[in-house]
């Protein structure tokens, strides 16, 4: 199985330098749509329902304190994992559909979606949370969008 760093590298290698916030959201959507379309996660790492949207703690700890990131920076953490054709298709669609969006737009989108909202519960805007957005909730929600779409 891939790691979040493999997915991050793939995204950066295809789109170039970006903000760490945008990378977090693109990795989140790659995971979400893999769960919906393929029925399994791309990687094992979880996302937490932070104030600015979903954040993968392992990826955050790697880029902490940096605003921009590129594939060279993340190259040291990726594995030699080879994505399947289905995984590449998912990643390519996420890159195509979300890659041109700004980090803030992606963050705002996650704020309107059930996985982040439900995981945060009654927390107010800006309040800290390290609650994990379950893969089951992500799969249920995003699969529902496919069925209704």
From TrEMBL:
Protein name: Antitoxin SocA-like Panacea domain-containing protein
Top-level taxon of origin: Bacteria
Pfam families: SocA_Panacea (PF13274)
Listed InterPro entries: SocA_Panacea
Taxonomic lineage: Bacteria, Bacillati, Bacillota, Bacilli, Lactobacillales
Domain Antitoxin SocA-like Panacea: 23-116
